[in-house]
Amino acid sequence: MKLYFSPGACSLAPHIVLHEAGLACQAVKTNTRERSTSDGSDFLAVNPKGYVPALLLDGGEALTECPVILQYLADRRPGSGLLPPAGTMAYYRVLEWVAFTATELHKGLGPIFRPGTPEDLKASTRERMAGRLDFVAGQLAGREFAVGTAFTIADAYLYVVLGWLKPAGLDRERWPALRDYHARIGQRPAVKAARQAEGLPV
Ligand SMILES: N[C@@H](CCC(=O)N[C@@H](CS)C(=O)NCC(=O)O)C(=O)O
């Protein structure tokens, strides 16, 4: 397998899960703006949508969309706890967190990072996001993980998106539960290994 990633982007979530699962995979650094990749492949041929993550499977098919790649990787390691057994309530809770992270947090922050977004829209987006983050902080207070008592794909994705708060102009100190959760998850060997592989500070 090959994981096409950009350092610190949402593709860091599947990168972390690959390390948590101990799955062999070549990580291919990708510049989505220039469409260039460290393995020389044409990124648009891998993912015509032009964004990371993309997971190129050994059979030659590419899988895209972060939430689905996370599920695919967890399914390669049944019993690992990265995704509880299908049909259990814990399974749906993990997927609920993944969907919330994708649609409310990840895409919610989008306008702040988009070049050309007017300052007043950035400010109202921060305000809206603060409400979402109040909710997340309330859920995570006193908990080690998003769901249950073990690390799941929900934690990988949530960790990555919470890492964008400072560049988005949202002070994580306002939410001690988020600050502490992010610091704790960041200590996991798999998280450090994935960060190191992307050339990020560990
Ligand atoms: N719906 C996609 C969104 C992926 C996405 O937003 N990727 C960003 C990095 S976090 C990206 O590659 N942006 C560059 C671009 O859109 O050109 C998913 O869930 O995988």
Structure description:
By secondary structure, the chain is α+β, with helices and mostly antiparallel strands. The protein has two domains: 87 residues, Glutaredoxin, CATH 3.40.30; 99 residues, Glutathione S-transferase Yfyf (Class Pi), Chain A, domain 2, CATH 1.20.1050.10. Helix content is 50%, strand content 9%. A five-stranded mixed sheet has the order 3-2-1-4-5. Bound molecules: glutathione (GSH). Glutathione binds next to loops.
Provide a brief overview of the structure:
It is built from 8 helices and 5 strands, in the order βαββαββαααααα.
Question: Which features characterize this protein?
Answer:
202 residues, alpha+beta, Glutaredoxin, Glutathione S-transferase Yfyf (Class Pi), Chain A, domain 2, 5-stranded mixed β-sheet, 5 strands, 50% helix, 9% strand, globular, binds glutathione
Tell me which CATH architecture of the largest domain applies here.
Answer: Up-down Bundle
Spatial strand arrangement across the major sheet = 3-2-1-4-5
C-alpha Rg (nearest Å): 17 Å
The CATH topology name of the largest domain reads: Glutathione S-transferase Yfyf (Class Pi), Chain A, domain 2
CATH class wording of the largest domain: Mainly Alpha
Largest sheet geometry:
5 strands, mixed
The portion of residues forming beta strands comes to: 5-15%
Average pLDDT works out at 97
Count of discrete alpha- or pi-helical segments spanning 4 or more residues: 8
- CA-CA gap between termini: 25 Å
Strands, count: 5
Low-confidence stretches at least 5 residues in length (pLDDT < 50)? none
Bound compounds:
glutathione
Describe the global form: globular
Helix percentage: 40-55%
